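Lecture 7 notes: from sequence to structure.

We start with a single chain of 404 residues. Read the sequence below before looking at the structure.
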Amino acid sequence: MKRAVAVLGVAVLACATAAQAAPDPARIAAGHYQAILADCLGCHTAPGGKPFAGGLVLETPFGKLATPNITPDRDTGIGGWSPAQFRDAIKSGVAPGGRRLYPAMPYPSYARISDADINDLWTYLGTVAPVRNRVNVNLLSFPFNIRALMVGWNWLFFKPAAAASKPGKSADLIRGEYLVNGPGHCGACHTPKNLFGADRAAALTGASLSGWFAPDITAQARRGVGSWRVGELVTYLKSGHNSHSMASGPMAEVIENSTAQMRDTDLSAIAAYLKDVPGDGASPTALAANGARMKAGAALYEENCQGCHNPGGDGQSIIFPPLAANPVVQQASAETLIRVVLAGTQAAQTARAPTAAAMPSFAWRLDDAQVADILTYIRNAWGNAAGAVSPNRVARSRAALQRR
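Now the structure, written as tokens:
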């Protein structure tokens, strides 16, 4: 009898200990949402790879980096880390052993995430399937492969600060500013960088990135989202398209892995904040329609483009995006447009837009001068206004795509 009671007591104690050690489902769910806000899956999953197992190669101005394995595998992932070490890596850019991280892992933005939210993210990642996948992360050449250089970079450019009070701002604007500049790290792509890869002052006004140009997303009327209503911005972030534009390239991946899964209230907050970020107010003058390049571009557009995008550049519903009044078309840089024409592209695939529209490559059909003329025409027709595109710029993009 005593033995039975003792066995029962041990069993009860074991069950109580297990229950105490089991992660709280609410914290797991909260951590999963933090992973969505920070787009962890998109960066830490290689094409065809296991979720969060790393190996995605990122192209930076300084060379290539591969994203690490952040599954709870003890040998090749973060299973041997402590919660404090995880927090230091996310918010300070310092991994266990004092190893300095590069800001391709956007710790300058993540520094704003609360410790509580970081702990929830840690709890969630502890529940994903561990994957044994050893990644050679640092693919940079000398001297950029010397991680100690990041001590100086951080001293110059990493200035984490607690969120300041914003008198007179609505709760939506405060939340939106936090999401855009904190976990969403939108500036990592959309803010221009200096020679050292740090953000310049013109936040969210567009930047070149891996052969694409991440567009201006301020309230600038022509190149930014100033002409979009809040609801139209929410639709774009939720589905990957709206009546103005369609997401492709890196933005399509962000929408699929992150914004399409965000709460509508958070998407509304992001939209409200972006509509509140002042643009530069520039209003360029369109090229004359009777110019030689505009005439050549118009003829080429009629032959190659208007079957899908229509003679007036207004596109066809959600199948083919409009070119008229499209902010991407009128960016300071035509890098994205050149890439799309030469390499083709596919739009985001989301629950609200399950059939992802696609555009084929025209590199085989059009030479550099023809691509330049078509894009010059598109960027200055139907009320658009932007700089002419040079054949030399197209040639550089074509060569870069061939190298890739």
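The chain has three domains: 20-157, 171-274, 292-403. Keep this in mind for problem set 3.
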